[in-house]
Design a protein that fits this description.
Strand order of the largest sheet of chain A: 5-4-7-8-3-9-10-11-12
Helix content of chain B: 25-40%
Oligomer: heterodimer
Strand order of the largest sheet of chain B: 2-1-3-4
Structural class of chain B: alpha+beta
Largest interface: A-B, 24 and 34 residues
Number of strands of chain A: 25
Shape of chain B: globular
Strand content of chain A: 15-25%
Structural class of chain A: alpha/beta
Shape of chain A: rod-shaped
CATH class of chain B: Alpha Beta
Number of strands of chain B: 4
């Protein structure tokens, strides 16, 4: 039993994969295409089947050391080489290096007459020869359904195609077969009947005049694979497929803080700024200063010597440079230094998925520390809300996994609730700063407040947002009995307050002065009274002294009188003399 | 390589023929004997070359050979190809675009119209 289980698990793990080297495709197919087996790539005209196949061969030859054989049934190798030259693939060079064998199978029904029994051994011989020449591990057939137009005997043809697929499998060649999509069937001639290991369906959809390419793995025998429709892009670097959602919320997070570029705003965010790798939404009505605020952050990023990717959907690079001069930000300088990458394109230029892919590619190429998208709401012009929401979610996931601080601006159209971002991404956002206009007394002023900021004790204050030619200042708005006032009303109110305070000050001073005067007057009175008193006192004292002296004299006189009376009675002669002397 | 002249062919040019086969398969052998018979009966100047792709696989690409056996008329131009074991003489003659004997002219004319 144990041995059996072991052998079973061995079988499970032995499904080998041949990596395609196509970004994203290996991810959704958990490793690549089934090695040594045949994969059908089907889809309508112009959906990128051939591109997928060629990239599979080229990457195999250049990156995985697996030479390949390209059998083209519809285009000559020269045409094909020219077609893929724009993707940077040089087929001829690979062929010269014996990494690739190009064979063109040309079928012209009018040149061929059929007489009797035949088989397609010639094709097998050519394939065998090609495989032997370069030691191929990979084969691409593009597209063998063309055989159906070249031969009139479908019985022989079907048998031979069946034999071809068996042959490819026996030779353990990892094969990509392209096939045109049929009406209600995956392929026009039912090739999927013969190949059942892996079927990939490509699709090219037009929605609101913008096209999106999508890929779906319809079937992949023996392995788990992403079953969703994945958008993909073909550009100068080849093909890239974008997994719709990252599987889990498992970002590494950082406690590091990055300044916002506006010291006053930093102050509102615990004095430190945003968290590195967090997502920031600046939402507001038209002209509320979103772009400028985002630009400040870009400037601050560059000032630290970090790289910033600025994606604008509204202003061209030059226009932005000029406009930012007016608030004292020199974008041109940072662009020249290579710290700022400014990409501007119209939101309607691509479908929504293309935007995402393009951003992915830019991020991978430039490796920025922060990314600004201005404004995300413009994306909605090209697609539905649902799509934008899912796209932004994926973008945020992607940026978070790379620890890139993302600043999005969002335009709130008038009449809409301010606490609602148009594309409904507020729940995905870590820090949301709301900018708005306050209209009062015939003027508009900008105010700002931090609606939310996860993981920090942010300020709850409403601040006035003032743009000067040097910097942005956040002034605490006037909050008083007259309500919240901003701009010149605030200034007027402040002046009024100042005047009132001044008046009060004067009042106090005056009171104090009066008090001083009174005190002085009192002092003077006291002094005067004291002087009066002193004078009286002196006068009285004199009077008292005089009285006392008189009393004394009187006493002396009386004594003298008494003595004299005695003298009269005893010594008469002396008394009149003394009396005369006393007078 | 064979060279034979017969009175039935009115054209003076040489018909150059290449027969592609893959080994000594019954189909290939049938095709070769059919070809020899038809040529001998209907052509005046002709040259037959038999190419075995098992021995020379690289030659398949040049003449765009897929089906085996394939008969290629390389001269006179334009190139014509006939696939199969050449069991239908009428179709081979039509495919080779050679004038046949007077007894067969009616059939040929009809086939020519079909072409």
């Amino acid at each position: 039993m144990g041995i059996r289980a072991k052998s079973a698990s061995h079988v499970l793990t032995s499904l080998e994969k041949a990596p395609t080297g196509i970004k994203g495709l290996d991810q959704i197919s958990s490793g690549g295409l089934p090695k040594g087996r045949t994969t059908i790539v089907c889809g309508g005209p112009g959906c990128g089947k051939t591109m997928l196949g060629i990239e599979f061969l080229v990457r195999g030859a250049t990156e995985f050391n697996e030479p390949g054989v390209l059998v083209a049934f519809e285009e000559t190798p020269q045409e094909m080489a020219r077609n893929v030259a724009s993707l940077g693939f040089d087929l001829q060079e690979l062929a010269d290096r014996k990494k690739l064998f190009l064979d063109y199978v040309y079928i012209e029904p009018s040149e061929i007459a059929e007489t009797g029994d035949y088989d397609l051994e010639g094709l097998f011989i050519r394939l065998q020869h090609a495989v032997n020449t370069v030691g191929a591990k990979r084969v691409m057939l593009d597209t063998p359904e063309a055989l159906f137009s070249g031969f009139s005997n479908p019985g022989i043809l079907r048998a031979e195609i069946r034999r071809l697929f068996r042959w490819l499998k026996e030779h353990e060649l990892t094969t990509v077969v392209t096939a045109e999509r049929g009406d209600g069937t995956l392929t026009r001639h039912g090739l999927e009947e013969y190949v059942s290991d892996c079927v990939i369906l490509l699709d090219h959809r037009i929605n609101e005049q913008s096209s999106t390419r999508r890929m779906r793995i319809v079937k992949y025998r023996g392995t788990s694979h992403g079953a969703d429709e994945y958008p993909f892009l073909i550009d100068k670097q080849g093909m890239s497929v974008l997994p719709l959602t990252s599987l889990e919320l498992q970002h590494e997070i950082s406690n590091e803080r990055v300044p916002t570029g506006i010291p006053d705003l930093d102050e509102m965010l615990e004095g430190k700024g945003y968290f590195r790798g967090s997502s920031i939404l600046l939402s507001g009505t038209a002209g509320s200063g979103k772009t400028t605020m985002a630009a400040c952050f870009a400037d601050a990023t560059c000032r630290r010597g970090e790289r910033c990717l600025y994606i604008g959907f509204e202003e061209s690079v030059d226009q932005m440079n000029r406009n930012m001069q007016s608030v004292g930000l020199d974008f041109e300088h940072w662009i020249k230094k290579g710290l700022l990458v400014h990409e501007a394109w119209r939101p309607t230029q691509y479908g929504i998925e293309m935007h995402l892919l393009r951003i992915h590619k830019l991020v991978e190429k430039r490796k920025p520390d922060s990314l600004i998208m201005d404004p995300v709401t413009n994306l909605i012009t090209g697609s539905t809300r649902q799509e934008v929401h899912s796209m932004l979610m994926r973008l945020l996931d992607f940026l978070k996994s790379l620890q890139i601080t993302a600043v999005f601006t969002s335009l709130t159209s008038s009449g809409q609730a301010l606490e609602q971002s148009e594309v409904g991404i507020s729940s995905l956002i870590d820090t949301w700063i709301l900018l708005r206009d306050v209209e009062l007394n015939g003027e508009r002023n900008r105010v700002l407040h931090v609606l939310k900021s996860r993981g920090m004790a942010h300020s709850q204050q409403v601040r006035e947002f003032v743009l000067t030619d040097e910097a942005i200042k956040l002034i605490p708005a006037y909050i008083g009995p007259g309500g919240v006032l901003t701009g010149s009303s605030r200034l007027a109110q402040e002046a009024k307050d100042k005047a009132e305070a001044f008046a009060r000050q004067r009042e106090i001073e005056r009171g104090q002065q009066e008090l001083g005067c009174k005190r002085d007057a009192l002092h003077a009175q006291i002094q005067m009274l004291q002087a009066q008193f002193a004078a009286e006192e002196q006068k009285l004292a004199q009077a008292i002294e005089q009285s006392l002296a008189r009393e004394h004299q009187l006493e002396l006189d009386q004594k003298a009188m008494a003595r004299s009376r005695d003298a009269i009675s005893r010594e008469d002669s002396s008394t009149p003399m003394k009396k005369a002397a006393g007078r | 390589m064979k060279k034979k002249s017969q009175a039935v062919q009115t054209s003076e040019e040489i018909v150059q023929l290449r027969l592609y086969v893959a080994g000594q398969t019954p189909k290939s052998l049938t095709a070769l004997s059919n070809l020899k018979r038809i040529c001998n009966e209907h052509l005046k100047h002709f040259r037959i070359e038999v190419i075995d792709l098992m021995k020379n696989p690289q030659l398949a690409q040049g003449d765009q050979i897929l089906a085996i056996p394939t008969l290629v008329r390389s001269l006179p131009i334009p190139i014509r190809k006939i696939i199969g074991d050449l069991s239908n003489t009428e179709r081979v003659l039509v495919g080779l675009d050679v004038r046949s004997t007077s007894s067969e002219s009616g059939a040929k004319a009809a086939a020519g119209k079909a072409l």
